[in-house]
Amino acid sequence: MTQSVVVQVGQCGNQIGCCFWDLALREHAAVNQKGIYDEAISSFFRNVDTRVTGDGGTISKGKICSLKARAVLIDMEEGVVNEILQGPLRDVFDSKQLITDISGSGNNWAVGHKVFGSLYQEQTLEKLRKSAEHCDCLQCFFIIHSMGGGTGSGLGTFLLKVLEDEFPEVYRFVTSIYPSSEDDVITSPYNSILAMKELNEHADCVLPIDNQSLFDIISKIDFVVNSGKLDTTVKPKSLVTSSAGALKKQQKKPFDAMNNIVANLLLNLTSSARFEGSLNMDLNEISMNLVPFPQLHYLVSSLTPLYTLADVNIPPRRLDQMFSDAFSKDHQLIRADPKHSLYLACALMVRGNVQISDLRRNIERLKPSLQFVSWNQEGWKTSLCSVPPVGHSHSLLALANNTCVKPTFMELRERFMRLYKKKAHLHHYLQVEGMEESCFTEAVSSLSALIQEYNQLDATKSMPVPDIPRLSVAV
Amino acid sequence: MSIVTVQLGQCGNQIGFEVFDTLFSDSHSSQGLCSKRENEAYQASCKERFFSEEENGVPIARAVLVDMEPKVINQTLSKAAQSGRWKYGQHAYFCQKQGSGNNWAYGYSVHGPRHEESIMNIIQKEVEKCDSLSGFFIIMSMAGGTGSGIGAFVTQNLQDQYAHSLKMNQIIWPYGTGEVIVQNYNSILTLSHLYRSSDALLVHENDAVHKICAKLMNIKQISFSDINQVLAHQLGSVFQPVYSAEGLFHYRRNPLEGFKDPALYTSWLQPVDAFNVWKTQRAFSKYEKSASLVSNSQFLVKPLNMIVGKAWNMFASKAYLHQYTKFGIEEEDFLDSFTLLEQVVASYYNL
Q1: Candidate from B10, B176, B318 with C-beta closest to A280
Q2: Are residues B222 and A468, on separate chains, in Cβ contact within 8 Å?
Q3: Can you tell me the distance from the alpha carbon of B125 to that of B182, in angstroms, rounded to the nearest whole number?
Q4: Does A189 have pLDDT greater than 60?
Q5: What quaternary structure, including any partners, is listed in this protein's UniProt entry (chain B) (predicted)?
Q6: CA distances from B330 to A227, A383, B142, B149 (A)
Q7: Measured between CB atoms, does B180 come within 8 Å of chain A?
Q8: How far is A73 from chain B (nearest CA, A)?
Q9: Binary contact (B102, A2; C-beta < 8 A)
Q10: Do A307 and A238 meet the contact criterion of CB atoms below 8 Å apart?
Q11: What are the distances in angstroms from CA B85 to CA A78, B14, B41, B57, B172?
């Protein structure tokens, strides 16, 4: 089995990361009753004998002594990381696996990328190499960051290039929080577009997420939980936003609930690689099946269920509802309209007591309402993992490579151009050494080229499936 | 004579387990519906084929388990051991940490050569345990990366190393509607390579077996376990000894057609009946010849044609090709495969 390392960059990245580790611990605690350090846990955690100082404390088998997250925490301000280290998760993190500074990046991609990038390159490499050494077989780096700020956006994407050069065989999966249009950081369009170029070129797979969608999901849950419409009660642990349970007692801010949704996404994504099932799906299969062309690696994700009713026996009708929900806009983590756009590929990752016939029945049912590109009419990748997530009897994560991301990118470009035409705030960037106007123009070109690729695919949407002549051979 | 089974990938290993379980149950079933002596002869024969004896009496399957990631092999080994009735050999498996990622090129060009020696050694050990080797039974799927890619690679190696033994490949044809998006690419690459090195291809389509479960057996919530058990049942019946020569290898689409009602689990084909059913269909030759002998073979053209068509369609748009060229399978290799398979399809249509 393989291991993955999480690289959490910036305030957003670290806050989401924190929720992720909390949820990961809870999930493994629920599955691993005997406290034996097994391969599933080793995918994200090391087992360490804390009595041993220095580096020799790693234990590879036997009882769990002390679990350490396979993570590198990076932030150019100390606030968030310090809070994590003083909070209930402090023992989960290896204090040597942090990189912090005090001044912050000032919401400036150039500062994050150029200044802090070069300043901390050596140190970061050292920490990354360390975490790789602790892995038997490192398969994937999960980078978590936001696009709109300075550190997550700038330094986070700088690290992508570093990872590509240093660990070319290890996958780079990036979870990126895109700024919504009401974002309060004025320069977020600049930061996002500059970051997009790096994502285009150096990421294997990107899961774009926007805050507005997460917020809508929480609102929906609140409505259901508080409206008292249902006869049966909602199981509190089953809320996809819930962090109640082992470590955190209350949710202090709305971001906690939103971050938990992303944490659930990452756990479900890796569940079939960590746990057994009748149809396994490893992380390398995600890239293989969902990325038909190297540049088109942006995947729209949707999660169901958002909560579970206390009723334990789920008849097939409810199960089918789960599949329908996965294709409803309410469950998506980014605002987009896949049903009216073109699917290039779609993956369904199911957890819990669901069998192949349930999966097939629902694919047949939903297929007619979805448009797939002509050369991938049956573009479905499926997986069945036996272990359900905490608080649920089953769940479904749908990942779609769909041209519906195009409007999001176009809107981002729009916002960028509005600022750029007036050269607003540009001097903050240009005064950073290594930044020139060409960085901006190249970034926009890169995005435009991507949008163009989506356009070309969209153009094929209403056309009939081309009849490509087969090879004719002499018999 | 003995048969050494090689189970590859998740599918191969999951099915392999069910096959051995079925074979074991059948040979030990008390009702053979034949004379006691008959039954004993039957039991002795089939035990020797598929199992070897251990000191404490627990039979060991003559099998080699191969997978590029550990979860399924671990599960399979422990399921067998837990049953207490039979088990797999302690060292009869080869495992790695990171799977093939549904990538035929990765299985064939990277994993295959890298682990060639280790895998062939384990197979060799298993062969040495046989008094006389009848041949190899290779269980693999076409849609994924390990079963398909490494399966093709290993079959080629077996062709080189054990040219005089028969090789029969049990291939699982994926569901038409996606299990794996690149399944058509993986399938055509697998088939074109197997044509050159395998003696017989026994094909089972997931769609067909699924229908059996749904319509003939009325299972409501069909799981892969159900599907694999039906498959194992069919395979078991093919393999259980019949009077004459060992190693009846065949190219057929749906062996169920030759069978009695699958719901009758207790009695297998009585040797006499089996003999009747199989008599005309025994073929001991290379693929091309056996195809023309078996009148059923036309059935497979349609699915084959469909897979080639879909793969060609995808190939024309160059989708996913970068994933294969990354590991050394170039466009020419694809074209070679297409050419070979188009020839097969055309030959069938001309029959």
Answers
A1: B10
A2: no
A3: 35
A4: yes
A5: Found in a complex with TEDC1, TEDC2, TUBE1 and TUBD1.
A6: 59, 28, 19, 15
A7: yes
A8: 26
A9: no
A10: yes
A11: 61, 18, 20, 9, 27
Q: What is the pLDDT of residues A368-386, one digit of tens each?
A: 999 999 999 888 999 999 9
Contacts of B312 in chain A (CB under 8 A): 468, 470-471
More confident residue, A6 or B1: A6
pLDDT in tens, B254-276: 222 222 222 222 223 322 222 22
Q: Which residues contact B56 (CB under 8 A, 6 or more apart)?
A: none
The CA distance from A50 to A67, in Å, is: 9
Q: Do B314 and A376 lie within an 8 Å CB cutoff?
A: yes
CA dihedral of A95, A97, A102, A103, whole degrees rounded to 10:
-160
Residues B166 and B3: their CA atoms lie apart, in Å, by 9
Distance to chain A for B255, nearest Cα, Å: 22
| CB-neighbour burial class of residue A69 (10 A; exposed 0-12, middle 13-18, buried 19+) | buried
User: Which of A288, A292, A376 is facing B102, going by the closest CB pair?
Assistant: A288
Say if residues B22 and B268 touch (Cβ distance below 8 Å): no
Give the closest residue to A279 by CA, choosing from A156, A121, A385.
A385
Residue numbers in B near A471 (CB within 8 A): 312, 335, 338-339, 342
Q: What is the mean pLDDT of chain A?
A: 87
Q: What is the DSSP letter of A92?
A: G
Residues 313-332 of B with CB under 8 A from A: 313-314, 316-320, 322-323
Contact list in B for residue A313 (CB cut-off 8 A) is: none
Does the beta-carbon distance from B99 to A278 stay under 8 Å?
no
> How would DSSP label each residue in B61-116?
E-EEEEESSHHHHHHHHHHHHHHSS-EE-TT-EEE-SS--TT-HHIIIIIIHHHHH
Selected residues 92-131 of chain B with any CB under 8 Å from a CB in chain A: 97-103
ipTM for this model: 0.86
Flag if A375 and B313 touch (Cβ within 8 Å). Answer: yes
Least confident of A431-435, B108-112, B293-297: B293-297
Nearest-CA residue of chain A relative to B211?
A357
Nearest to A195 by CA among A105, A110, A72: A110
B351 touches chain A (CB under 8 A): no
| A332: three-class secondary structure by DSSP | strand
Centre a 10 Å sphere on the Cβ of residue A166 and count the other Cβ atoms it contains. 14
Strand-strand pairing, B166-173 and B200-205 = parallel
Chain B nearest CA to A276, separation (Å): 6
Chain A residues touching residue B185 (CB < 8 angstroms): none
Q: Minimal CA–CA distance to A461: which of A396, A403, A378, A381?
A: A403
Neighbours of B214 (CB within 10 A): 14
Beta strands in A179-308 (DSSP E): 205-210, 300-304
Instruction: Retrieve residue A16's tokens.
Output: 């989401």
Measured CA to CA, the distance from residue A268 to residue A289 in angstroms comes to 17
Q: For residue A458, which amino acid is it?
A: D
- Closest alpha carbon to B153 in B113, B207, B185, B205: B113
What the block records as the tokens of B245 is 């020569």
Q: With b meaning 16 or more CB within 10 Å and e meaning fewer, what string describes B145-168? A: bbbbbbbbbbbbbbbeebeebbbb
Q: What is the DSSP letter of A389?
A: P
Question: Residue B199, SS3?
Answer: coil
Closest-CA distance of chain B to residue A75, Å: 32
Q: Do residues A141 and A170 lie in contact, with contact meaning Cβ atoms separated by under 8 Å? A: yes
Interface size A-B, in CB pairs within 8 Å, comes to 143
Query: What does the block give as tokens for A424?
Result: 């607003």
For A328-338, how does the pLDDT look when each residue is reduced to its tens digit (9 = 90+)?
888 899 999 99
